Amino acid sequence: MKRHSKPLTKKTGENDKALARLLKAIRSEVNETQSVWALSLGVSARCVVNWENGYRVPTRAQSFEVVTRLRDFDFDPKRLLELATLLGVDADITGLSLPVAAPEPLPEPPPPAPLPSLPPPQPPPAVEAPPPPPPIEHVRARINAAVYEAAEEIDIPLRALRRAVAIVLEATAASGASVLDAHSIVAQPGGTRARAKR
């Protein structure tokens, strides 16, 4: 038994015109004739013609059938939801839902600020090597000249002065003092003589 559409009891409004246009456009998009479409919905072909011309609107049961049938066609969910809204069909009942847009990715954090570049390590200051000691021949010649000059100046035999210098140097080495220490002691007026008297 064919189910009849609900006649329009008031002047056709904008929503009803939009519904009529959408019903016709969607049927064409799924490539169904009015007769085949009517047969699949369980209504007469005349009923479909009336819907698409805006003379009648589907009943609640017919509206549910239209939305359910289009869902089987894997129809565009957005347009199907628009049709369900115009037909007054609750989208939750038909299981319709718009695809949820994926959340926008969070912006990547800025790269860490580069660490301040440290100056390259400086090489340690070059230590100048002490000059090499003079050859022993030069040292011997200089000491001999100084001893000879001193012996003449103070008018004592050269051998006696050499012996005195040798004793002073031996005492300096034995005490762990430097030659400069020995010089400062010997150079003091009356220093060695005063110690000798004691």
Describe the protein.
- The structure is a single chain.
- The chain is mainly α and 198 residues long.
- Mean pLDDT is 76; it is low at 7-12 and 194-198.
- The chain has helices spanning 14-29, 34-41, 45-53, 60-72, 77-87, 91-94, 136-154, 158-175, 179-187, 191-197, and strands spanning 6-7, 56-57.
- Helices cover 58% and strands 2% of the residues.
- The chain has a two-stranded antiparallel ribbon with strand order 1-2.
Task: Give a short account of the largest sheet.
Answer: 2 strands, antiparallel
- The percent range for helix content is 55-70%
Number of strands: 2
Kindly report the spatial arrangement of strands forming the biggest sheet: 1-2
The sequence of SSEs as H and E is: EHHHEHHHHHHH
Distance between the termini: 155 Å
Average pLDDT value? 76
Tally of DSSP helical segments: 10
Based on secondary structure, the structural category is mainly alpha
Oligomeric state of this protein: single chain
Radius of gyration: 62 Å
As a percent range, the share of strand residues is under 5%
Uncertain stretches of 5 or more adjacent residues: 7-12, 194-198
Shape: rod-shaped
Question: What tags apply to this protein structure?
Answer:
198 residues; 58% helix; rod-shaped; two-stranded antiparallel ribbon
Q: In terms of topology, how is this protein built?
A:
Blueprint: E1 6-7, H1 14-29, H2 34-41, H3 45-53, E2 56-57, H4 60-72, H5 77-87, H6 91-94, H7 136-154, H8 158-175, H9 179-187, H10 191-197
Antiparallel strand pairs: 1-2
